[in-house]
Amino acid sequence: MRRAELGIQLRRDVKPGLDEAGVKLFLVSIGTWERSGQFADVTGFPRDCLLADPGSVTYEALGLVKGLQQTFLAKETAFSFLGRLRRPGGMADLKDVMGRWKPWVPPKQDQALQQGGMFVFDGPRCVFSHFDQATGAHADLAEVLGLAQQLGGSLAASAATASMDCGCEEPAQQQQ
Question: What predicted TM-score, i.e. pTM, was given to this entire model?
Answer without folding.
Answer: 0.72
